[in-house]
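Ops channel
N.P.: pipeline sanity check, posting one input/output pair.
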């Protein structure tokens, strides 16, 4: 008995160390007998055979009829197999996934249902996928084997994305395509320090805006803001404001702040606004309005009335950002609570507001 246990332990330890050694040397994407992802599964299967062999040796030592036992186990395993056919299908599919390797641990895949996530683990029965919103999907292996999915990590790890571009009716489509290709190639080849910021706004911020509107039916309402933002703004809703303006005063650019007035006039005259000024513009409406809910409604009204991209997902997300959407809590202060604060000194660190004011508000006092 003791000898059998010692031999089994030795065999298991040798096998365990051999698998670890092989897994450390094996690199994904390089040919080998098996991938390193299969090492844990092979170790479990080998352990079952070792235990089974040890059990047979022990039973023979005590003169048990092994043939009768094997026959009984065969009949029993048949019944178990019929009862657990789904589980066995998942296990066999797990082996198939590891041998065929349509994806590996760490790959980003898109399921047929549209969910996108990173593969965390490929087990005997199921595969675990961590989605982009930090949720864990546990999918039976047989379902993955019998469905179509997209591996976004192949042929390489470069980010791929599709961007829908809208143009006015009557536009020359061929000219639009040519222009877009030229812009894309120019951005890819440039060493400009603004390259990353441009791509971040073109891809990341745009996708955030479209997802915000697509998945949130109340995207144009104050209550669509994050709970932390609503709570902190409500706590400070009755804080004393140094300045309080009416909607008419905002619309006619009649505030004490020349920078804000210039931003409002740029929007009214051109249908657009400098990106940084647009954030400052929204923050100050929050600061100079009696309640945060009223500030949100007025900011959205002015934006949709005068901006060329009014009622566009980017506009809805941009206004909501001024009130805490797609942002985090900051240090607490009056009126804003934990929502990010902006002031005139911050403008001077980004660009020259004096020139901006003179351009859109000639004669405006600084």
């Amino acid at each position: 008995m003791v000898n059998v246990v010692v031999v089994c332990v030795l065999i298991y330890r040798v096998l365990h160390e051999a698998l670890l050694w092989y897994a450390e040397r094996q690199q994904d994407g390089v040919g080998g007998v098996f991938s390193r992802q299969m090492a844990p599964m092979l170790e479990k299967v080998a352990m079952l055979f070792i235990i089974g062999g040890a059990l047979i040796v022990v039973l023979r030592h005590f003169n048990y009829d092994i043939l009768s036992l094997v026959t009984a186990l065969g009949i029993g395993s048949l019944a178990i197999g019929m009862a657990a056919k789904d589980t066995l299908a998942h296990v066999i599919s797990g082996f198939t996934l590891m041998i065929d390797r349509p994806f590996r641990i760490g790959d980003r895949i898109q399921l047929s249902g549209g969910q996108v996530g990173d593969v965390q683990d490929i087990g005997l029965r199921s595969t675990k996928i961590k989605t982009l919103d930090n949720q864990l999907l546990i999918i039976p292996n047989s379902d993955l084997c019998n469905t179509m999915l997209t591996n976004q990590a192949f042929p390489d790890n470069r980010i791929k994305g599709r961007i829908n571009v809208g143009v006015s009716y009557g536009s020359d489509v061929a000219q639009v395509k040519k222009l877009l290709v030229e812009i894309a190639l120019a951005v890819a080849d440039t060493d400009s320090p603004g390259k990353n910021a441009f791509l971040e706004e073109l891809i990341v911020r745009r996708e955030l805006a479209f997802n915000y509107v697509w998945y949130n039916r109340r995207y144009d309402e104050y209550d669509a803001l994050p709970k932390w933002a609503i709570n902190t703004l409500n706590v400070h809703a009755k804080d004393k404001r140094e300045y309080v303006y009416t909607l008419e005063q905002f619309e006619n650019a009649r505030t004490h702040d020349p920078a804000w007035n210039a931003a409002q006039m740029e929007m009214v005259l051109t249908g657009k606004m400098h990106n940084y000024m647009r954030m400052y513009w929204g923050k100050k409406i929050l600061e100079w309005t009696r309640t945060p809910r009223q500030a949100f409604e007025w900011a959205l009204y002015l934006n949709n009335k005068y901006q060329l991209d009014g009622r566009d997902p980017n506009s809805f997300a941009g206004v909501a950002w001024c009130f805490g959407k797609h942002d985090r809590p900051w240090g607490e202060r009056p009126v804003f609570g934990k929502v990010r604060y902006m002031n005139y000194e911050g403008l001077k660190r980004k660009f020259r507001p004096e020139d901006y004011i003179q351009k859109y508000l000639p004669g405006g006092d600084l």
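N.P.: looks fine end to end. The chain has 15 helices and five strands.
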